[in-house]
Predict the structure.
Amino acid sequence: MDRLDLISRIEDARQLLYRMHMEYGSLLHPEVIQQSVVLDGLINQYNRVKVGKAMN
């Protein structure tokens, strides 16, 4: 997966997290937490790609 694709997926996940937070009214709702985990994973993946490119 390339950086631009990851950036797009991160933005989509971020927007979904925001909408879920507004819908459930809490950052502690299990579905909101799960979406946060998804977003964190995408951000971590992006950082790994970014660091990998910097090392080359």
